[in-house]
């Protein structure tokens, strides 16, 4: 029998947890295409993708013809939307781009919740998003909410952590005695 040569790459335990792939799931390649296989060598997704990235539990981003689509572990497209760049979901949102230049955020159904008109971004948690804009020729990050209201201005040179943002917001809040005067 003529079996194809398979190259199996185990996702490290850190990556498995970080990227929400189920435990004991491996990315494998055959003839320069990628698929997913279980620890018992049962094929979950055949090797038909140019690249595979974890999306969230039981879902992955699959790239064909340089376009990314969201799929479940039954290899069914979540919707028919294509993206040029994608990232793994964080707290229910993924930063994506249709054109590779402007970015927005989609939910787990692949629907835009924040339109793609930012230079880059990341969901920090608690419905706070770090988004990048060109400010006087430099990429600066600000913090917005789901309604795109600016929470913190574009003053960060890199994406801040949720803890950094929470500390800044706590420092900015008014003392209780000021609130009671209102």
Automatic annotation (TrEMBL):
InterPro entries named among the record's database cross-references: WG_beta_rep
Name assigned to this protein: WG repeat-containing protein
Organism this protein belongs to: Kaistella jeonii
């Amino acid at each position: 029998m003529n079996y194809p040569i398979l190259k199996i790459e185990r996702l490290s335990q850190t990556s498995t947890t970080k990227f929400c792939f189920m435990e004991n799931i491996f990315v494998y390649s055959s003839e320069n295409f990628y698929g997913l296989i279980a620890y018992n060598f049962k094929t979950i997704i055949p090797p038909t993708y140019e690249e595979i990235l974890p999306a969230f539990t039981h879902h992955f981003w699959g790239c064909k013809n340089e376009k990314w689509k969201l799929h479940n572990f039954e290899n069914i497209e979540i919707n028919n939307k294509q993206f040029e760049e994608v990232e793994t979901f964080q707290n229910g949102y993924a930063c994506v781009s249709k054109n590779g230049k402007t970015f927005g955020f989609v939910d787990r159904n692949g629907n835009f919740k924040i339109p793609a008109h930012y230079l880059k971004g990341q969901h920090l948690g608690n419905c706070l998003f770090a988004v990048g804009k060109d400010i006087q020729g430099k990429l600066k990050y600000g913090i917005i909410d789901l309604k795109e209201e600016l929470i913190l201005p574009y003053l960060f040179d890199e994406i801040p952590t949720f803890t950094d943002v929470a500390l800044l917001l706590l420092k900015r809040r008014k003392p209780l005695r000021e609130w009671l005067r209102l």
